[in-house]
Amino acid sequence: MSSTVQPKVRENFLDYIWDKLIMPQAGYSFSKNHTVPYSIVAIQEGVLATKYPSQYWNGAVLSVNSGSTAEDGSTDYSKIAKAVSSMQADGVNITLPSINSSDLGFSPHKTENKILYGLSAIQTINHEIANEIINNRPYVDFRDFYDRIYQKKLIKKGAMVNLIKSGVFDDFDERFDIMKEFITLEYEEKTSLNMQNWARITSLGLSQSNEYISYLATFKSLLDEVKKHKKGIVETFVKPKDSHILLPEMVLGWYMDNVTTEDRMGFEVDIVDEVPVVSLKNLEKFIKKKIEPIKDWLGKASTLQMYNNSCKNEMWNDIALGSYAEWEMKTLCYYHSPHPLLTVDRDRYGFKNFFDMNPIPQKVGRSIPLERIFGTVIDKNKDKNIVTLLTTDGVVTCKYYAGSFENFNKRITRPVGKTGKSEVVEQSWFTRGNYIALVGFRRDDQFIIRSQKRVVGLEHSTMLITNITSDGGIYLKEQRERG
After folding, report:
1. In whole angstroms, how large is the CA radius of gyration of the chain?
2. How many whole angstroms separate alpha carbon 72 and alpha carbon 76?
3. pTM for this prediction
4. For the chain, which has fewer Cβ within 10 Å, the N-terminal or C-terminal residue?
5. How many CA atoms are closer than 13 Å to the CA of 293, on its beta-carbon side?
6. pLDDT tens per residue across span 346-393
7. Is the CB of residue 145 less than 8 Å from the CB of residue 107?
8. Which run of H or of E encompasses 145?
9. DSSP states along 431-460
10. Strand, helix or coil at 345?
11. Which is it for strands 233-237 and 268-272: parallel, antiparallel or unpaired?
12. Residue pLDDT, tens place only, 139-163
């Protein structure tokens, strides 16, 4: 140390610097075998950022921030939404996944300034399925993919539906048209109809306009079930072959209201405890004669076409309801299409931009002023009582009290009669894709959920947006259903 001492500089001062400032950091200083790799990575990043198109650097940042590089193949949709939203806010073009171009995770497009969404980040598409898709490329059209992947049962129906909704086939055709093609391929069309199809026809709401004849056809179906299971048989005859049965309770009311006394004389043989006993043979003869017009109607080509179209429409309602934006939220947890809430008149409902709020809450008098925000639920964490909301301005983390979180998160059920079973009355309000309006204030990077009683517009901390009108209005549900 003495050789370093310059005139008028005391040796003990240099000792102090060495002992108190330099040596304490030796415990966490990087050795050469640590600093060299970090330096190489820094150089690589610098080359990537300056020598290559911006989509390469942005794609790398997006992959890390979204967690899509997780080794266990897990998908954190909250992370994805935040990372994508941040990139979009910076003007980065993130496009829908492509069946012929996307990798497992986010990847830069080689010739266009955009980033492709990854296949494995699509809902229900794991690494195994994504690799199967990649290994069997290219696909010339949707039917080619359907035949080579789906028909060979390499993916299930739910995964196929989510692929369509996510937009991976958009290079081939419009998404709605692709979904229609899938439903047409999936549905096995009927070539003829008969009375065996009557229960299904009735469930589709296609019964003939003559209500009496339609009910008779349904009546016959019920009696066929009674005959099949031998329920309610009072007496059986061999010659002539016949059975006397008590009318089932499920049809008794309709029978008493609609079948005339004159008609009943042809097949009613007794009454037991005010319930008619009928000759099954004679009743079937009566019904057969009355429903002859139904059989003629079933034989028409127009009826067959209406039946097949109704079955396909029912399948559409089951798997394909919603807009492109709703499909994207369900399968990708982000909107490539415009956010559905962009058309809402924010001023009318007092909705504010979270990112314009003061991150340090300021009291006015004894309380902190509350604000309103709104958006789409993209994730929830019941352990931390947090809901992640995709607003029209970006992703917001919303923090609840434990009790309040549970109230809006629980699924509401109620008992069904005395069966011991229950039915779902209302799903959780924090279901992904739901639109909600929240009241609270900003603290750092979180929106703290609160309410203020007796103040109009602030008395309910959480409201479900049930409908968006064409004039920028919304319908708000303020209370949960009762169980």
Report:
1. 34
2. 12
3. 0.79
4. N
5. 11
6. 999 999 999 999 999 999 988 999 999 999 999 999 999 999 999 999
7. no
8. helix 142-145
9. STT-EEEEEEEEETTEEEE---TTSTTTS-
10. coil
11. unpaired
12. 999 999 999 999 999 999 999 999 9
| 178 contacts 172 by C-beta, under 8 angstroms | yes
Structural contact between residues 281 and 242, judged by C-beta atoms closer than 8 angstroms:
yes
221, amino acid identity: S
Rounded to 5 degrees, what are φ and ψ at 465?
-85, 110
The CA-to-CA distance between both ends of the chain, in Å, stands at 81
Rounded to 5 degrees, what angle do the CA atoms 95, 98, 102 make?
90
The answer to whether the bond into 138 is cis (omega within 30° of 0) is yes
Take residue 367 and report the two structure tokens written for it.
């309380």
Integer angstrom CA distances of residue 190 from 197, 301, 311: 10, 11, 10
Amino acid at 416: V
* H-state helical runs in 373-436: 402-409
Pairing of strands 371-381, 435-443: antiparallel
Q: What angle do CA 40, 45, 47 make, to 5 degrees?
A: 95
Angle, alpha carbons 329-435-433 (nearest 5°)? 25
pLDDT tens profile 234-266: 777 777 788 888 887 877 887 888 888 898 899
Q: Which residues contact 282 (CB under 8 A, 6 or more apart)?
A: 242, 266, 267
Q: Which residues contact 298 (CB under 8 A, 6 or more apart)?
A: 193, 194, 195, 197, 201
Peptide bond preceding 240: is omega within 30 degrees of 0, i.e. cis? yes
For residue 169, give the 3-state DSSP assignment.
coil
What the block records as the tokens of 138 is 């290219």
Q: Percent of the chain, pLDDT > 70?
A: 93
Tokens of 211: 């209500």
What CA–CA distance (Å, rounded) separates 239 from 281? 12
Angle CA 225–226–231, to nearest 5: 140
Q: Which residue has the tokens 């469930």?
A: 203
| Burial track 168-196 (b if 16+ CB lie within 10 A, e otherwise) | bbbebeebeebbebbbeeeeeeeeebebe
Structure tokens at 375: 């958006």
For residue 194, give Cα distances in angstroms to 37, 93, 253: 76, 55, 27
191's enclosing H/E stretch is none
